[in-house]
Specification:
By secondary structure, the chain is α/β, with parallel strands linked by helices. The chain is 42% helix and 16% strand. The chain contains 10 helices and 7 strands. Helix 6 crosses helix 8.
């Protein structure tokens, strides 16, 4: 069995190799948020994040755990938040500094953040938990550095998601399926996430479904058709992705949880 540390290092190496790809993906969100499933997913996520964050963040400290290429940091920096970024990949941080030259960045393990206690009003953590064999140390660290009453907004990958990706990922990593990233990922139920956040010192966590549908398979078969399909799909997606029961079939969870006072 591969150790948790080796799994994390593999994830960091993979994302370092893909840093320029992520930059290119994020650049098109404002131009055409329906271009493909990735940018559509981030459009939907942005809309969910904005439901829980103030319009202006002047004087408020936000930490982006696993900040990647700095896309979300630039978005909230423009709204007045005071940003700090942390990531394990030097190449991701290099890209992030280019778009956020005035922001403080720290390279380090998300399980051992090189940051002070009770320092941040908000924590953002996008697509990090899916690469951690054990999410507890990361949740504990986020609770440690968040101010009492502070809000954490954290994504996770649902185990029952409609696109069946958990099964695909297991097959891809077991048999090295060509065209699939051979990087093991980890999937969670809403109940497991709620228990994990509570154990780390957060109040009871809200778990929301961000977006749904097996659209990624349509993209592989007919990529040119995706913009029209995604645009037509979005009204129904907005109605169903976070509906009771159906949220468990969504392709991304957003956990919203406040640290206990």
């Amino acid at each position: 069995m591969v150790s948790a540390e080796i799994q994390k290092q593999r994830a960091i190496a993979t994302h370092s190799d893909q840093a320029t790809l992520f930059v290119a993906r994020y650049e098109v969100i404002e131009q055409d948020p329906y271009q493909n499933c990735f940018v559509y997913s981030r459009k939907r996520l942005n809309e969910w994040l904005d439901k829980f964050l103030p319009t202006r963040g002047d004087g408020l400290q936000m930490l982006d755990v696993g900040c990647g290429t700095g896309y979300h940091m630039a978005r909230y920096r423009e709204r007045g938040f005071q940003l700090t970024g942390a990531d394990g990949s030097a190449e991701m941080l290099r890209q992030a500094r280019e778009v956020n030259p005035t922001v403080a960045f720290h390279q380090g393990d998300v399980d051992k953040l090189p940051l002070p206690d009770n320092a941040y009003d908000f924590i953002l953590c996008v697509e990090v938990l899916r690469y951690l064999p054990d999410i507890a140390p990361c949740l504990n660290e986020m609770a440690r550095v968040l101010k009492p009453g502070g809000l954490a907004l954290v994504t996770a990958a649902p185990v029952w998601q409609a696109n069946a990706y958990p099964l695909v990922n297991r097959l891809a990593t077991t048999f090295n399926v060509q065209g699939m990233t051979a990087l093991r990922q980890y999937f969670h139920t809403a109940g497991k996430l709620q228990r994990g956040f509570k154990a780390a010192g957060f109040n009871s966590a809200e778990v929301h479904g961000v977006y749904g549908g097996p659209m990624i398979w349509g993209e592989r078969l007919a990529p040119s058709a995706m913009p029209a399909l995604l645009k037509a799909w979005e009204p129904l997606d907005a109605l169903t992705s976070d509906a009771p029961i159906l949220r468990h079939l969504s392709n991304m969870f957003l956990v919203c949880s406040r640290k206990a006072q």
